[in-house]
Amino acid sequence: CGVAFMLLExxxxxxxxRQIARVFKKQLDETEHPxxxxxxxxxxxxxxxxxxxxxAENAKKPDVAMSQAYKLATSSQLNxxxxxxxxxxxxxxxxxxxxxxxxxRDRFEEVxxxxxxxxxxxxxxxxEAVPLELASDVxxxxxxxxxKAEVKEMVETxxxxxNGHIEQQKK
Length: 171
What we know:
The protein is α/β, with parallel strands linked by helices. Helix content is 44%, strand content 20%. The protein is built from 5 helices and 6 strands, in the order βαββαβαβαβα. α2 packs parallel to α3 (95-110).
């Protein structure tokens, strides 16, 4: 069915979460293979695309949240579930989180679900790497920051837009 776990390092976890939700929302609108997208963070716990908790007891503790992940994936009316977890670098090495994730691997593959772990750029380099128990099960990647030329182009576009806005206000 796909990948049970992905780890993505990014400069902006909230924006990447929104991008993932938009991609699957578009798929939901355009195909007969809908995907349920749910995010999790320390502050809100699990939140669906409507900003509501899909679980009666919403876990804000990472170990409880990982234990609830399978229930969440299998309770959906949709075919697949993508669970996006922010700031994974803060808790992934805790055995109370690692063990439920090990237990989820096969179950998530059975129900075509994926756990996307997000972290800031560089969070999983060196001794902050993924725990050995999960290393062979996690696909890891990082979202690259824009190159200098791209930043220059963005700034120039921003300046042009700002100048155009100022000119319109003068008229």
